[in-house]
Structure formats: structure tokens, C-alpha cells
Amino acid sequence: MKKIIVSIIAFSLFSASCSDFIEKEERGTQTLENYFQTAQECENYTNELTKRLLLPNDWWTLLAPRVTNEMSTDDAWMGNTGQDSGAHRPSSQYLITPDNMGDMNSIYTAHYYTIQSANIGLEKMALSPISETLKNQYMGESLFVRAYCYYELVNLFGGVPLYTTSLGTADLKLERSSAAAVYAQIESDLKESAAKLESAPVAKDGRINKWAAYALLARVSLFQEKWAEAKNYSNKVITEGPFALEADFLNIWNVNNHNGVESILEAQSSSVQNRDLGSALPTLSGARGEDKKNFPSNDAADVLDGWGWCMPTSDLENAYLSENDVIRRRSTITKWGEAAYGDEVLNPTHKFSLNDNKSGRICRKYYIPIATRRSLDKKDGHLPLNIPLIRLAEMYLTRAEANYHLGGDALADINIIRARVKLDPKTGISGPTLLRQIYKERRLELAFEGLRLFDIRREKDPTTGRPVIESLMGPNGTFVKYNQSSTDPYETTNLREPQDKGINFDPSKHLLWPIPQLEIDLSNGVIKQNPNY
């Protein structure tokens, strides 16, 4: 059989054992054969897997492409008009090619590093002499990590090479599996993960637990239009899990409320000054060009000065305005010169460089309050903002969408979400109008939380039956036409990012990103490209 050398997988071989993803001093001649002998070694390995998935040391490996996916939707511009946008432009402007993928290359590569690492760990931990209780916990967490990697890969690229054992140079023979096969493996991993984690403690410290597995099962079931399963798993998390909606929507992203009552899984952060454990997201997507003179204190300690990527669109703002949704709008978007919501006293007129900002807006969810800024000697890499990856509100919206297709009560769940932000309940709507409202509630609730691109690719327009993204993007897309006729005073006066965002979208290919050409070349063409690339 022809040998396929896939660079993203071939990384591991022996070096994957402990040199890259496990940073640990060697003890004598430590190898895969003598590692995993203690509970501490198994826990350290699992912790590193989780960190690699949720909080990688290098911001460009996973954080940048996840932000770029947001920029590829109607929610966000690239935003930074003062620096080179080469990493983000291919996807966000739908100019992507297999040879010019920007930072989409890095997420493809990074996830296969983690998958191979998870496979090694699962094999070795199964033979470890530790207790069955701890073995189940660490293997359950590792299975979730592998499933999450495949979940992102299949939604970004479609069917991808699928493997669940550690590979060496003699057995790299992988072609692409179908998307259905990848999803089947994700479901299998998550079900096994939940079973192994059944008795594990549900600590609110960022550790993966069975509820994260059930919640991700709800999400991937929804994405496959498995309505009954989506309802079952989301209902299980809602009714049996130890979670509750935050009373204050803004509190979900509060730097002083890590792992709050609504959080099912968060990427952890810390501001410990002698460790690089902070989140890079508030820097990557923070306001660019802040100046101490624009703060009441006139103190440089109040300045964060982010990089200015992933700025909200006026189209997203208009979606909030159309619902009179003040709380979620102000918790998601701060417009130039307005008070930072929840930080009105110390930042009553948040200003930044309009020359470097496409939309005159920043994402409030990524904002670091002034009091926290003042407590930090080091800011870059030391910002204490946890990033929610799965939270309870999504489960309500998943159950609502599933109920719509199953003939259940979809209105009840969206009205629970609306009530939290003091909006009147929706009544008397059904059919396509109700489905569009469910889609809209997902957009307003979950903006900038990593789901918008996946949603508009999978959601079906009830009028045409086609993916929603096709009605938004392309020469005749409503979002493209809106921007071309917009009179927004910020977006239309800074044209260093083109106003025709999304015009290059082609539905014959852009429902997925291309497979990196390097991987196809290294496979001698056995890995096939996505259509029309």
C-alpha cells in the first residue's frame, strides 16, 4: 500500500512523546516506555493536552485563526487598518487558496499535533498502573480534547484524515475520511468521555468534565441536524447539570468571575506576573491606539493598547438595535467615545485610534477593566480573562432549535434567554419567522464566541433551503449590499479595509476552507482538495 507522509501527523513519531507538548525535565532516559507510571505524570500529560487545546502558548496557533473565522462573517471586520493583514485577509475577504491560507494553516497543523498527542496518551494511560478512577478521569479528558480538535477540523475543512492510534513512519497511510465518519468518531469519543468522567468531580477550575462532553454532543448533533439527539443532550445539561444562567449577562466575561455558574467549559487564564499564563485575546482584539489623555486619570497605567483585530460591524450593532437589546449590545460592542459598559466611572469615553480602526467599535466581551489594568505590571501575555467555550445559554438555544424541528416549544427557551437581558417575550410567531428568530437569538447571544461562521454555514434559510451564508455574502448578499450603501460614519470613512466585505464569497467552494496544499503535496495527491479550489 502506498505510504502517505502527512506532515501534520508525522511531527509526532518519537519527538511527540515529551519534547514539544510536554515541557518537563528529563529524568535519566525518560521515554514513552517509562512515562505514564504515576498519577502525577498522567495528570501532567492530560493538563498539557488541555492547555494545547484551550490556551496555547503561541497566540497565532489557535487564537488567531479562531478570530479570523469571526472576521469571515457579518459580525466582524478585520478591523486593524494600520498593519499588514496578510494572516487574516485570505479568509475574511474570501480570497483564500490552498497556497495562500493565512493563519488557517496553523489551526490545521496544531490540531493534528494535539490529536497525535492524545492518541499516544490514551494508549499509554490505558496500560498505566494508576487507579481506575484516575485513569478514567485522565482518559475521559483526553478523549474530549481529541473530539474537540476533530469538531473544529470537520467544520472548517470537511472530511479530514481520521485516526485514533499513534502513528509512526511505517504506517502513515491516511486519506481523507468523510465528514460523516469524522462526526461519528467525535460522537463516539464524547460518549466514552462522558462515561469515563461520570464519577469525576465537577470542579469549577477549567477541568473537562462529563457536562462538557454532553454539551459538545448537543452542539455536534445540532450541526448534523440530528434534532432528537440535540434536544436530548442539551436538555440533559440544562435539567441535570450544576449550571444556571448568570443573572447579569455582562458577568459572563467578568475578569473577577472566572468559571461562573453559567460556564460549562472555559479556557483558563491568570495574571501571575512571573508566569506567562494570561489570555492573548484581549490584546489581539483590544482597542488599538489608546492614549492616557483619554482616561480621567491621565495615567499610563490605564492604557492597554491592543492590536485592534476583529472589530464589530455596524450590521451586528443594528441587529441589537432592531430588538432594542441594550444589555447584550453594550456587553458586546463599545463604540468610539461611549462609556465602557460596566466601567463607566474609570472609562466614561473609551477612545482609540480611528485611523487604525475600521468600524469605530471594539468587542466589549474582550475588554479588560481599568482597575484590573492598574493591578498589572505586565500586560501582554498576563491578562486575566477566561474565554468561555461552552456555556448554558447555548444549550437553551440548541434545545429551542431542536424543538422547532421536532414540533416542540421553541419559544419557551428563547424567551428564557431574552428575559435574562430584560427583553419582552416573543409570542405568536411560528414557521419561518420563528426559525429566523432562533437564528437571530444565537447571533445576539453568542457573538464573538466562535460559533457565527459555523452557524451561518449550517443554518438553512427557510425561504430558499440554502445555507444562510449564501444570502449574506457574495455580490448579491444582503450583508454586502448593506455595506455598499451604508452611511455609517466610521466604516465608510476608513476604506483601508474594503467596504465590499464578502463580495468574493463563492458558494461553490467557500462553505469550507481548502486543505493546505502542502499536505496534499506531501501525500503525493492521495489527500484530495475540497471542490473548486
TrEMBL record:
<dbReference type="Pfam" id="PF14322">
    <property type="entry name" value="SusD-like_3"/>
</dbReference>
<dbReference type="Pfam" id="PF07980">
    <property type="entry name" value="SusD_RagB"/>
</dbReference>
<keyword id="KW-0732">Signal</keyword>
<keyword id="KW-0472">Membrane</keyword>
<feature type="domain" description="SusD-like N-terminal">
    <location>
        <begin position="69"/>
        <end position="222"/>
    </location>
</feature>
<feature type="domain" description="RagB/SusD">
    <location>
        <begin position="347"/>
        <end position="533"/>
    </location>
</feature>
<dbReference type="InterPro" id="IPR012944">
    <property type="entry name" value="SusD_RagB_dom"/>
</dbReference>
<keyword id="KW-0998">Cell outer membrane</keyword>
<comment type="similarity">
    <text>Belongs to the SusD family.</text>
</comment>
<dbReference type="InterPro" id="IPR011990">
    <property type="entry name" value="TPR-like_helical_dom_sf"/>
</dbReference>
<dbReference type="InterPro" id="IPR033985">
    <property type="entry name" value="SusD-like_N"/>
</dbReference>
<protein>
    <submittedName>
        <fullName>RagB/SusD family nutrient uptake outer membrane protein</fullName>
    </submittedName>
</protein>
